[in-house]
UniProtKB/TrEMBL annotation:
Domain of life: Bacteria
Pfam families: Flavodoxin_2
Domain Flavodoxin-like fold: from-to ranges: 1-56
Sequence intervals crossing the membrane: none
InterPro entries recorded: Flavodoxin_fold, Flavoprotein-like_sf
Protein name, as recorded: FMN-dependent NADH-azoreductase
Organism: Rhodoferax saidenbachensis
């Protein structure tokens, strides 16, 4: 089984939600041996903002955007 653990708080070590998700994931893994955890920290690996270009949308030639 795979589990995606995402943190997004900018407070790092002072974040209550980070501690809660850490504890929740630890309990899950204890109760479900063999679970693979993929971790994503949005405060560290900040995604770029989405735009029409990044999503692959293109306006017809001569169109105003």
């Amino acid at each position: 089984m795979k589990l995606l653990h995402i943190d997004s708080s900018i407070l790092s070590g002072g974040s209550i939600s980070r501690q809660l998700t850490k504890d929740t994931v630890a309990q899950w893994v204890t109760n479900h041996p063999g679970t693979t955890v993929d971790y994503l920290d949005l405060a560290v690996d900040t995604p770029s903002h989405l735009s029409a270009d990044s999503l692959g949308f293109r306006a017809p030639a001569g169109a105003e955007c």
